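User: Continuing from earlier, I have the next pair ready.

Assistant: Great, send them over.

User: Here they are, in order.

Assistant: Folding the first of the pair now:
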Amino acid sequence: MAQARVRRGLVLAVLALVGVGLAGCQTGADRGSAQAAEAVELPPLSELTPLEDPTAYQGPTTAVVGGPSIPPLAEAPEPELPATVVSKDSTGDTEVTVEDISRIVPLSLSGSVGELVYSFGLSDNIVGRDVSTNFPGSENIPVITKEGHSIDAEGVLALNPSVIVTDGSIGPTDVILQLRDAGIPVVTVGRAIDPETSYATAQQVADALGVGSVAPAIIETLGQAIADKEAEVRRLLPADESKRPRVAFLYVRGTAGIFYLFGKGSGADSLIRSIGAIDAAEEIGWVGEKPMTEEALVGMNPDIILVMTKGLESAGGVDGLLAAQPSIALTTAGKNKRIIDVDDAVLFAGGTRIPDVIDGLARAVYAPDSLK
């Protein structure tokens, strides 16, 4: 139990750092001026010409994530209320009864909770959002998080929410308790970082809103979309197994000198597997999110290093990253400057955006010239 608490503390600490980066994705985000998500049209993967050897490609690439490819429910379902659910609080399970979902505030660092509420056709009920929740029409919804990961309690109370749904990745905890003490039902659900956890979180969010019956169909649609996308990606893989790229995800905040390697169980591992690549961190037994060591990175010797866009910018771009961490230059990825950056706000979004992220990563890894 003690080890589990320590690991959860580390994960949330790293997520808090991620939140700082997410805040940077929007201009004036704390005032709710973020632009709405817009659908990005890309040619089908089947029309791309993949690299014969993706391990030998040279030069950086910015991944383009299309979609959203899974639309929300056409009509908002009729909730069955009151709904009594178990809130997975950090202090232990707590029963919470939700009687009204007319004014929802979804909260998560990745925006996955808000995205799920949107997918259930309930976006019109959202009265406040975190900086990472970004779907068509969301630009009109006030943002009530500061710097991407800190809840503005007064801002939330001013919205008079009827329910708050959070995955626990945004705090502080005492603010969450303060909101509950004010009489607002607060439901904590699991954090969605990969397909399996996204399915569980989707059901928990739906149950909390009294629309649990609609979740299985959406979960089935999501599962099939992920399977279909993975099948599409397999057609891009090199025929020679030895040319399957070895990929490492590096969390970077260059201005703060922060470099974390993400391994097994971090969510990055699931995405890397979904595109048919080899997780270089998992390959050497790297578990979770831990500070990068030069020995570990050089030992992994990845062909590709995956980073968040704002993280790469904070390091001064690819050249700045190589200068800040000379050990990166010793890897195959560093020598080839094979750095792929992905929009901070979608990389770990979870939920129904997973197929879109898989698609975007596959293009960047196997057909980078198609994005130029």
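And the other member of the pair:
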Amino acid sequence: MPIDSVPLLDVQPSPPTGGPPARVFADVGPPLFEAIREGRHRKLALQVPAGLLRNAHDLAARLRTETGLPVALVARACFGACDFPSRDEAAGADAAVVLGHSPIPNVAIPMPMYFVEMRTAGGDPGHLARIVDAAGLPKRLGIVASIQHLDLLPALTTALAAVGREVRLGTGDRRLYYAAQALGCNYTTAQSVASEVDAFLFLGTGRFHPLGLAFAVDRPVWSLDPLQGTLEPPIDRARLIARRQLLVAGVRDAARWGILVSTFAGQHRGGMAAALQARAEAHGRSAEILVFGRLDPADLEGRALDAYVNTACPRIALDDFSLYPRPMLTPPEFLMALGELPLEPYRFDTYH
């Protein structure tokens, strides 16, 4: 089979048909409260990302006051819209409020959900454009943003044009709700315009998304924090890729593999795991499929396995690999280790 037609890389969740509705709101305010009251729910679950945990109890109290409903606060922080609360975590709730994320169009939800994107208009477009210009970024720029800062893009694009930059905003695949949006598992908005730009600018806070973007596109990636007005230097992509290639090379002879499968609806790729298991066996290796919800490094200790391949969120392998007792690869890296894919070009494990 030709390397470029390896089908298991496209074994992805299918778009949902029917199911509970998803509603989207910019922030926590009257439109959200009114929609919840109209929904005639019995009980709400509230899920927040790590960055909002400090305010979670105040938000839960506000929801109770404004809607008159009991609210169960999900204790664990969520990673994204792929990681919404299960029915067990929702503690009898018949609807959920999810903060900081937008829906993933091809992921079915288990109950009615209210996605609150926590949009912010923070950042002076003219000031941010002057920062980019002073740093000497290339003329042709692609921009990718976290959900909170998408509203800034039209004005920032205009301001960047005024300082001589040509901006491209890409459109993603069926997993992305908005143009120019970034997900930790999907940067197809950037990949769709990569051939038209010389560099990418990530608009948002933190290092999670720009690091993922650097893995996904072969272009320099700068990170612009619109709230602090700071521009981080470009990420050393060559170093990131070299480190992963070295890891792949080190497990080419691994005989016993563990294939990790998440039970989260937005991360579950059981079909891919089965295909990877068959590939391993075709190359004379053994492979055991291990199913989990939230993965704890301690769960993998003491096992008679040489290495793992992770079919759940790709960032588990790319960002947290040092936490695990054995090497952990993404599915494309696993095919590299088996010799079915070349080390170059590096392939990011994109969820479609």
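Worth noting for the second one:
Residues 22-116 form a domain with the Rossmann fold fold (CATH 3.40.50.11840). The chain is about 25% helix and 20% strand.
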